Amino acid sequence: MFGEVAVFEDKPYPASAQAVAETKVLGIRRKDFLSFLAQRPGVALRIISVLGGRLRDAQGRLKDLAGERVEQRLARTLLMLSAKLGSTLPFTRQEVADMAGTTTETAIRFMSRLKDGGIIRSTRGKIIIL
């Protein structure tokens, strides 16, 4: 689910998403979604739980951004992505840099060291954790 926060705030969602595989998108009008939740409190509670988890993750990322060196942030980002998606990550080095809050150039230098150390391999638009 993407953009559900905008439903509760009645404001445009402040971010966008890009699919990494073929995807179908379904849009739901705000009033229909709120009506659906009013009729199904269990679903509303599940969404609250998901949002709470996302908030906790965001707070953790903020803490990491403030207190970790860039190499640690990049390594943590790669580990988090591989835990969720497996060893083949469908992201460019620029996308990983964006997720880690650093520049593409810094990410390229760091990932070159990982590549030289036999930890990762990269191909066009993919990073493979070895």
UniProtKB/TrEMBL annotation:
GO cellular component, as recorded: cytosol
A molecular function GO annotation: DNA-binding transcription factor activity
Organism phylogeny: unclassified sequences, metagenomes, ecological metagenomes
Domain spans labelled Cyclic nucleotide-binding: 1-37
Transcription regulation listed as a keyword: yes
Pfam families per the UniProt record, alphabetical: cNMP_binding, HTH_Crp_2
Record keywords, A-Z: DNA-binding, Transcription, Transcription regulation
UniProt-listed PROSITE patterns: CNMP_BINDING_3, HTH_CRP_2
HTH crp-type domain boundaries: 68-130
Descriptive protein name: HTH crp-type domain-containing protein
